[in-house]
Amino acid sequence: GEGEYGGNLYIEVELKPHPHYEIKWPNLEIELPIKFYQAILGDNLEIDTLKGSAFFKLDPGAEYGDTVTLRGYGLRYLDDAGNLQYGDLVIKLIMNTPKRITKEQREILESYKALDKTGKPRPRRTN
Fold it and tell me: Distance between CA 127 and CA 123 in Å, rounded?
């Protein structure tokens, strides 16, 4: 009822791409590089969000492409009843493999490799 002659007024909004977040309305998605030892051992991590810093626990055994969802850290919107709601922040984990390591780090990894009894890798089916 706010348009010409009592008609509706429509406003089109175009969102500019964000350098870090991908918008999947009302959710946000982001890639977070983690270190391989964080993936193996787990860790307590902090990430900057639109609402400020958020802390979350990374469980041991995380793999490349796994996601962690922070509920309520996405975009705000009004639901059908007019209540303010928030989407989620979906964090996709990617591994940050170092290009160079120290002699001590190499020795530790060689020791780990010597203890590894899992055998050769087997292909997995992707669905």
Answer: 13
Provide the residue-wise pLDDT of the chain in tens; the chain has 127 residues: 777 787 888 888 887 888 889 999 999 999 999 999 999 999 999 999 999 999 999 999 999 999 999 999 999 999 999 899 999 999 999 998 899 999 999 999 999 989 988 877 778 787 6
Distance CA 72, CA 55 (A): 13
Q: Is 86 exposed, middle or buried (0-12, 13-18, 19+ CB in 10 A)?
A: middle
- List Cα–Cα distances, 35 to 56, 58, 110, 118, in angstroms: 16, 12, 18, 22
Rg of the chain in Å (alpha carbons): 22
What is this structure's pTM? 0.78
Q: What is the DSSP string of 64-107?
A: TT-EEEETT-S-EEE-TTS-EEE--EEEEEEEE--S---HHHHH
Rounded to a whole number of angstroms, the distance between the first and last alpha carbons of the chain is 50
Please give the helix or strand (H or E) that residue 31 lies within, else none.
Answer: strand 27-35
